[in-house]
From TrEMBL:
Signal peptide extent: 1-24
Keywords associated with the record: Signal
A Pfam family per the record: Lactamase_B
Classification of source organism: Bacteria, Pseudomonadati, Pseudomonadota, Alphaproteobacteria, Sphingomonadales
The keyword Protease is assigned to this record: no
Protein name: MBL fold metallo-hydrolase
Highest rank taxon of the organism: Bacteria
Domain Metallo-beta-lactamase: 91-324
InterPro entries: DHPS-like_MBL-fold, Metallo-B-lactamas, Metallo-beta-lactamase_dom, RibonucZ/Hydroxyglut_hydro
Keyword Signal: yes
């Protein structure tokens, strides 16, 4: 899309609007962390020959070369991210999403030396199989501590889903709630923003506050594997609903002296809307990094990718780490427009933010 001056000003003006009313208190007391270490556990791109990179406020460490050449990092369509956050000598670990299969997730965790028993909290961004498929096998290891919190954004995350936007689409799975109960996990289902593991926070429900209106290529079956009574009134009595991802969560951390690191695992509500919600929840305007899947693959168009790029340039984060469903159209355009800000998402790579 060729953005003319008028449309660019309109887009950037929307992006630069205050995240919350001037003088109003933010709705959540968000912790501030000294350091944040993100590791990509599941994504589509793999590779072990990258070089370490150090830039202001960030250090990028490529995945280790495995000691046994019979083993390798597994890449797949889906997403999982490990966040280790520190305040002083205290470090907490949060697992965000679980990828498509437990085999890939557990393989990559083992190669990185990640202990499931060391995880303090988990966030499931939304009810798509490529984000929760690895959950059952992960819990079945028996290593996850009982009473570990798992945050989910709403009852509709549990509804059975279909591929495509027609009622005759093929099945796309449903979360096995019983397996969560058997593992003794503390399931927290809420559309409100929540503090995670004492260090991070979820966005809660993400309103449309920018021009972004992504199309979600799945359908939901209200009442199948979910409690109709807990769904929104407009959805609960219908046999089939085209997804609007209203339950989807973003996750964020406020890094001291740097600003917000916002993680949109798939961003079906729009990555700009996700960032704006994180700003509104925290009362922090400065965005240090935007990470994750930005949902700019088909059925999204090139025009939508360029629109999101313009909005992101207006926010002016220090770094952008697009992965999963961000799409090569967006990534290529972002690399051309902001080469010093864009860093690729590679399985096994670590990104260090904050104090050394």
């Amino acid at each position: 899309m060729d953005l003319n001056r008028r449309s660019l000003l309109a887009l950037t003006g929307a992006a630069l609007m205050p995240a919350f009313p001037i003088g109003a208190a933010p709705p959540l007391l968000v912790p501030v962390v000294d350091r944040l270490h993100l590791t990509v556990l599941i994504d589509s791109t793999t590779g072990v020959f990258g070089a370490s990179v150090t830039r202001p406020g960030i250090r990028v460490v490529p995945p280790p070369i495995t000691a046994d050449y019979h083993t390798a990092f597994a890449g797949q369509w889906g997403y999982s991210l490990l966040a280790r956050s520190s305040v002083g000598a205290s470090t907490h670990t949060t697992l965000i999403d679980f990828g498509y299969t437990a085999a890939a997730l557990l393989n990559n965790m083992a190669l990185l030396g990640v202990d499931p028993g060391a995880i303090d909290a988990m966030v499931l961004s939304h009810g798509h199989y490529d984000h929760f498929g690895g959950l059952y096998g992960f819990l079945a290891t028996g290593k996850v501590r009982r009473r570990t919190p798992l945050l989910v954004g709403g009852e509709e995350a549990f509804c059975a889903r279909l591929r495509g936007t027609e009622p005759d689409g093929s099945p796309f799975g449903a979360i096995d709630r019983a397996s969560i109960g058997r593992a003794g996990i503390d399931l927290i289902v809420s559309g409100d923003s929540q503090v995670v593991a004492g260090h991070g926070f979820t966005t809660g429900r993400i309103p449309f506050v920018s021009p972004e209106r992504p199309r979600v290529p799945t359908g939901m079956l209200p009442g199948q594997n979910c409690d109709r009574r807990l769904l929104d009134l407009a959805k609960r009595d219908r046999p089939f609903v085209v997804d609007d991802a209203e339950h989807e969560l973003g996750t964020a951390f406020h890094v001291a002296g740097r600003g917000l690191v916002v993680i949109g695992s798939c961003s079906h509500r729009g990555i700009i809307n996700t960032v704006r919600r994180a700003q509104a929840v925290s009362g922090v305007d400065k965005v240090h990094a935007i990470v994750g899947g930005f949902h700019l693959v088909p059925p999204q168009t090139r025009d939508q990718a360029m629109e999101t790029l313009a909005l992101m340039q207006a926010i002016n984060p220090d770094y952008i780490i697009p992965g999963h469903c961000s799409g090569e159209t967006f990534v290529a355009a972002a690399l051309a427009a902001m080469p010093d800000k864009v860093i690729r998402s590679i399985v096994g790579t670590s990104y260090f933010f904050g104090a050394a």
